[in-house]
Design goal:
Distance between the termini: 83 Å
Number of domains: 2
Helix content: 40-55%
Number of helices: 11
Shape: elongated
């Protein structure tokens, strides 16, 4: 193998997958020969084989038999040709797409920061565990996705933490993200810089936190609707738990949604669900657990109570992405029943 030093007495083993040898054409040809022999022996035992004199009358069958044998040989040689192999990367992408299509699960964007990606994976695993215990949503383990190479349509909610090591996004990735949001998907952008007084609509000359700076650069390449702070009567506050705040590792930060989603009904949409949720409370760090379910990251001054509220906030976020305005629909139920009664 190239690139490996030659050591005396050492043996190099290549663990690359070996090519398979197809035996089916040879076995099929062998079975055909046995069938012909069996037929000849049967005719011989029944004394129905033509004699040498009568064989001359069957000479006209020779070309037909020859064509059959040649055709069989062509089929065998064609079947023996090696089949085209699917690249390993494509097979891996197909496997992830199949898993995501068969089971609903959460996802996070792979940022290129290995430490942050590990926290995102552990955080969504912890939130998935809570969802399975407290709700009817039995989510499968979360996936880390790269919008450059993978489809986003399979995931109802995508968590995207901001980092200075964020991989640059190509036009193809931006187009996929834009299409995902416009077709009903929801992305939770987490700037993780609540301690820097996150405030999205500040003027350009004001200093921005590191996460907010990255977020502005990403949103600058997307076609997003106007944003507004989360209204007090927004359905997100009551999609599962009744909440007034959405703490994570930090508390006190505001959540921003599309402005049209702050009202129950929009003139241009039947069911307005915000495709963008923006906050700065570092939710994945509060949700992150190890294999035994123990928290991995320290949390703010709120302690265990703040972590519990962070899980409740996560449950509300997921329920909102899955069910939309079903809670708001219940407000109009008496009026609908009254109309039906008339």
């Amino acid at each position: 193998m190239q690139g490996l030093p030659e050591l005396p007495g050492a043996r190099v083993h290549d663990f690359a997958p070996e090519e398979e040898i197809g035996l089916s054409p040879w076995l099929l040809s062998f079975a055909l020969v046995l069938l012909l022999i069996d037929g000849a022996v049967t005719l011989l035992l029944l004394r129905r084989l033509p004699g040498w004199k009568s064989l001359k009358t069957h000479a006209g069958m020779a070309p037909v038999i020859l064509c059959v044998l040649l055709f069989s040989g062509l089929i065998s040689s064609a079947a023996a040709q090696p089949r085209a192999q699917t690249p390993a990367q494509n097979s891996g992408d197909d496997r992830l797409a199949l898993e995501a299509a068969l089971e609903t699960r959460l996802a996070y964007i792979i940022t290129g920061d290995a430490g942050l990606d590990a926290v995102s994976a552990a955080g969504l695993a912890g939130l998935t565990r809570v969802l399975r215990m407290r709700t009817a949503f039995e989510a499968a383990p979360p996936h880390g996705i790269n919008p450059e190479t993978e489809e986003l349509v399979f995931y109802p909610l995508i968590y995207w933490p901001m980092t200075g090591k964020q991989l640059p996004l190509t036009d193809k990735a931006l187009a996929r993200i834009d299409a995902y949001m416009k077709n009903g998907g929801t992305i939770l952008f987490d700037t993780r810089d609540q301690l820097t007084a996150f405030n999205l609509p500040r003027s350009a000359e004001d200093a921005a936190g590191p996460g907010e700076t990255v977020l502005r650069r990403i949103l600058g390449g997307l076609d997003i609707p106007p944003l507004a702070p989360l209204a007090e009567d927004h359905v997100l506050n009551k999609s599962f738990y009744l909440l007034r705040d959405f703490p994570g590792r930090y508390s006190g930060g505001r959540i921003w949604v599309t402005a049209s989603a702050n009202s129950y009904m929009d003139a241009n949409s039947v069911d307005v669900v915000s495709s963008i949720l923006i906050g700065a409370n570092d939710w994945a760090a509060a949700w992150a657990v190890d294999w035994s379910g123990e928290p991995l990251m320290n949390i703010g001054s709120g302690g265990a109570r703040q972590r519990e509220l962070a899980y409740r906030a996560g449950v509300n976020l997921v329920m909102y992405a899955l069910t939309g305005n079903y809670k708001a629909d219940q407000v109009h139920m008496p009026a609908l029943l009254e109309r039906l009664g008339q």
